[in-house]
Amino acid sequence: MASSPCGNSNFDSGLEIKTRSVEQTLIPLVSQITTLINHKDKPKKSERTLAAIHRVGQAVSVAVGRFVAVGEAIATENQELKDEMGQACFEARRAGDAIAQLTDVGSALPSQLDGRATVFSDRTAMVKAARLLLSSVTKVLVLADRIVIKQIITSRNKVLVTLDHLERVSTFQEFVQIFSQFGNEMVEFAHLTGDRQNDLKDEKKKARMAAARAVLEKCTMMLLTASKTCLRHPDCESARINKDAVFHRMRCALEQVIEIVTEARSSGENRILPASIYNGIKEFKSSVECLRENLYSLSPQSMSSQLEALVERTEDFTDSAYTSHEQRQAILGLCQLARQDTQQLVHAWVEAQSVHAKEATKDMEVAILKTCQRVSDLRRELHKVAVGRASDLLKVHGEQLPLRALKAAGAEGNLEEVAEYSRTLTEQKEQLVETCRLLCHVSGTEPLEITCIHAEETFHVIGPQIISAAQTLALHPSSKIAKENLEVFCEAWESQLCDMALLLREINDVCNPLINATLVSPQKHSANLKTAKAVKLDAEEQTSMAKLGLELRLLSSDVDTEVEKWEEQEHDIVRQSQSLANIPPSLCVYPSLFQLVDEEKTVVMTEMEKLVALCQQLQMGAKTPVQGKTATFQKVTILHLCASLLFVFTLYIFFKKRESKFLVFAWSLFGLVDIK
Questions:
Q1: Which of 312, 315, 292 has the alpha carbon at shortest distance from 371?
Q2: DSSP letters of 603-631?
Q3: By the 8 A CB rule, do 307 and 338 touch?
Q4: Which residues contact residue 532 at a Cβ distance below 8 angstroms, ignoring those fewer than 6 apart?
Q5: DSSP state of 492
Q6: Domains in the chain, start-ordered, CATH in brackets?
Q7: Which residues cross the membrane (predicted)?
Q8: What is the mean pLDDT of residues 33-53?
Q9: Measuring CA to CA, which residue among 144, 231, 219 is closest to residue 189?
Q10: CA 93, CA 291: separation in Å to the nearest integer?
Q11: If you write DSSP's letter for every residue of 158-216 in order, what string do you get?
Q12: What whole-number distance in Å separates Cα of residue 13 and Cα of residue 33?
């Protein structure tokens, strides 16, 4: 047998593929190589067969050549990967050349192939070349993936630096400039991490990434209003506490993203999910059922200990002050019955071992069935308790009574009522936190467990932030910025309730697909979830829209800040400025899908027509020369308002495919064209 053209290699072929993109890239190559290897031992060496094999082999070789050229270019641009990438590219090129040599049979006559190493005569050489090619190409892809990770880390570092600058600003003007830069950097980071999240194969990592990105999304708007409130009221302790909490949470979320993409652990921590009852029951049943195959797979003592550990976890349910007496008794009763059934199983098991039985006896089989059924009954009871409590809480909290009361008390400057309703909100927060913990026990999958933990942490953090924002408003009841800040945190609370309703539905679908219709979600959000039709934008449009959204929110907030200084509240321009400054935050969506139903588009078109006259008025005012401090201040404010309007209508251009009517209208704000 002829020797292998590619020789021996100790190249690592056991690389772990962690992303879908790498996996999908390898599929065509694997398919072509499989075609070459899986030929018949004695195929008919017809011209057609020889030509086909030659064609496939040459295609593989050419593709590898192009692939290696890209890999070598990456190595040149990234010196830290130069040696590893160069070695991997060398191995890939060598393997590609070997395959080309082994499949070079297209132009040869069948009689000329005798005595030469080909895919027909040296299958071992072909297998070695294929393995070397797959391992080296995989290595190149994995090394290239490090570049993506490096981009995410670099983007995170830029965000952190700007975040530090934002935290230290002392003037509103400086804050506006730095926040604009921060918004651009966050948009870039969001796209990189969003692509990475979609590319991850590990569902647990994907869920953790989604949770961290959700925190960053919501905290971006919180950071804006909390910082503005601190700048307006620099001596207010509650405003400082509110702001510090937002910055801390954003840094933690940024760190979590890096932990996921680099598989590192901060301070040497190895974060492990808390043991859930669902998984505990699953593992216990598996141990019990294994006795059918092997009576000596574990000891009776270990099985009893496993059950006790499972029962101990149910204390999260039975020790809760919010669990009813009937529910507590039902859980405790099922735990006791599970102990009794397990003891009967152990007794039958010991008897079977004493007579050296090789398989489960009839008594053991009955005991196994009873034990498994009992712990399944326990799981269903715990599921019913957790889901029932969550549904009841969502019904009650859907009315948002404590939030409304806190807003009203803060606006009135009533610190006593703020303290009273803060206690009510704190109690509701504790109920929600505990309920999320119970849902984690019965969620059924690790990604849902991670989502439950995220919900628990979110309620735990946002509750105190709402209270500090309400305290700030109560101390400064005439402050529009403090009012806006409280509104943003309340919206985040409501959004998390909506997310919890969706989570509850997913848990119910996993554990019991037949029970679905009884779950209750906040009425405010449920209609949108059913009727909204997502309009998908490409990456460039999402980036542009998100940047414009952040700038729009910043500018409109700036207008609101300046308007607050004006005493003549009946002035038309003031009134219109205030209405525009209250643009819904949904327009400033952090890079994601923007939802707009057909009916809303019609309403938007109608309202835009009404703004034409107002914009003409503003345009004339902006062109009119003025003198004096007050007049100059008013003109500057008008220009800010024009800029805000431009951002608004530029956003809508995306949804109308840059329709000329919208473009003309937007440009007309600056007098570039006339509106007829």
A1: 292
A2: HHHHHHHHHHHHHHHHHHHHHS---SHHH
A3: yes
A4: 595, 596, 597
A5: H
A6: 20-106+120-147 (1.20.120.230), 169-264+399-513 (1.20.120.230), 277-389 (1.20.120.330), 539-565+590-670 (no CATH)
A7: 637-655
A8: 64
A9: 219
A10: 53
A11: HHHHHHHHHHH--SHHHHHHHHHHHHHHHHHHHHHHHHHHHHB--HHHHHHHHHHHHHH
A12: 16
Q: Which amino acid would we find at residue 159?
A: V
- Any idea which residue has 């009852």 for tokens? 277
Structure tokens at 204: 């647990």
| Side-chain-facing half-sphere of 540: CA atoms under 13 Å | 0
Percent helix / strand / coil, the chain, rounded to 5: 75, 0, 20
Enumerate the β-bridge partners of residue 595. Answer: 534
Spatial contact of 427 and 322, defined as CB atoms under 8 Å apart: no
pTM for the full model? 0.68
pLDDT tens for 146-191 read 888 889 999 999 999 999 999 999 898 899 899 989 989 999 999 9
Q: Are 197 and 206 in contact (CB under 8 A)?
A: yes
Alpha helices in 358-479 (DSSP H): 362-397, 401-412, 415-442, 446-475
- Which DSSP category does 107 fall into? S
What tokens appear for 206 in the block?
Answer: 């994907």
What span, in angstroms and rounded, lies between the C-alpha atoms of 648 and 660? 16
Task: Indicate the residue type of 635.
Answer: K
Residue pair 532/595 in contact by the 8 Å Cβ criterion: yes
Q: Using CA atoms, how far apart are residues 330 and 378, in angstroms rounded to an integer?
A: 9
Beta bridge partners of 19: 200
Q: Are 243 and 227 in contact (CB under 8 A)?
A: yes
With CA atoms as reference, report the closest residue to 251 among 215, 218, 221, 226. 215
Mean per-residue pLDDT, 583-604: 46
Using an 8 Å Cβ cutoff, are 422 and 470 in contact? yes
Nearest to 435, CA basis, from 525, 322, 280, 311: 322
Measure CA 172 to chain center: 32
Question: Does residue 73 have a pLDDT over 70?
Answer: yes
Taking the C-alpha atoms of residue 506 and residue 514, their distance in angstroms, rounded to an integer, is 12
Written in H, E and C, the secondary structure of 326-391 is: HHHHHHHHHHHHHHHHHHHHHHHHHHHHHCCCCCCCHHHHHHHHHHHHHHHHHHHHHHHHHHHHHH
Grouping H, G, I as helix, E, B as strand and the rest as coil, residue 115 is coil
Mean local confidence (pLDDT), 84-104? 82
Cβ atoms < 10 Å from Cβ of 356: 7
Closest CA to 249 of 220, 288, 278: 220
Cα gap 428→549, rounded to integer Å: 33
pLDDT tops 70 at residue 9 = no
The pLDDT value recorded for residue 128 is: 81
Residues in the chain: 676
CA separation for the pair 549, 651 (Å, rounded): 8
What would the pLDDT profile of 230-252 be if each residue is shown by its tens digit? 999 999 999 999 999 999 999 99
Helices (H), 291-324: 300-313, 315-318
Q: Which helix (H) or strand (E) holds 535?
A: strand 534-535
- Give φ, ψ of 422 to 5 degrees: -65, -40
Decide: helix, strand or coil at residue 594: strand
H-helix or E-strand spanning residue 125 = helix 123-168
Q: Quick check: 318 and 328 in contact, CB under 8 A?
A: yes
Do 306 and 363 form a contact (C-beta atoms < 8 A)? no
Q: For residue 656, what are its two tokens? A: 């109308």
